[in-house]
Design goal:
alpha/beta; six-stranded mixed beta sheet; about 50% helix
Amino acid sequence: MPKKLVILFTLLVACCQALFAAGLSEPASVAHRGQLYRVTHEGKTSYLFGTIHVGRDGSYPLDPVVTRALLDSKALVIELDIRQDAPFQLALARHGRYPEGDSVQHHLSPATLRLTVQALARAGLSLQSVQQYKPWLIANLLIGAEMEVHGYQRSQAVEYALLAAAKSQDKKVRELESAEYQLGLFDTLDERQQEQYLLENLADLADGDSLKKSTALIDAWNSADAPRIHAVWQSATSGDSISAGFMNRVLLGKRNPEMASNIERIMQQDQVAFVGVGLLHLVGDDGVPQLLKRRGYQVEQLY
């Protein structure tokens, strides 16, 4: 299983029909996916597109509105250039693994370890194969493994379609973040939080909630269904669980303002940029579109 699916799946993320920027209307039969915004300020333009980090056959091609926006852009901007493996492996070793001589068995209670071994066995994995992984990484590994069983692949992620289009159009590719930064966020969880994060995800995997939550986001993205997208975001960020708190406080709450700042900087460098980020970063009063709007940018939702 590709290791990038293990980490980036947690960061899953993708609303109605509209007219395109120049007044181009799309046929009623065109099915939009995700969400697309146009951001303008002092003659600079960015398109902000919500993505999801896994997919399966039938997710492509990108719809004409997105294709046209990317074609009109000078650069593609994504969270992370997923084609680059070396930085990812370095960050994984630093933040996701215990050093030689240590293992996850030393960091989990016997009850949690027993449940973990059972979940690994159901996924066709042994404890020995992941014993150097930290609890948060094992949780994400198991989520990714379940998604793969149901046909969802990291290799079918929307970012790959965007990168392929950018390459064919000879566009620059910029990153909003880095593997070191993204994996380091999970490493901010202390030992108690990591064990609880693992337990919560083991419970969701056991009762089927994990798959339901993931497919709810994917289905909402596939139909550009704004109310369903908002409902998924609300579910992911509500409650007193470690997972919801981490999503609300760190994966979205910390990163969204930083993404908005990075987009501002990129808009000063490129006359027109196409920015693809996980769908949930675009939702809510503190989503990236609203943050940019509060900073004086004109933000229009194209669909």
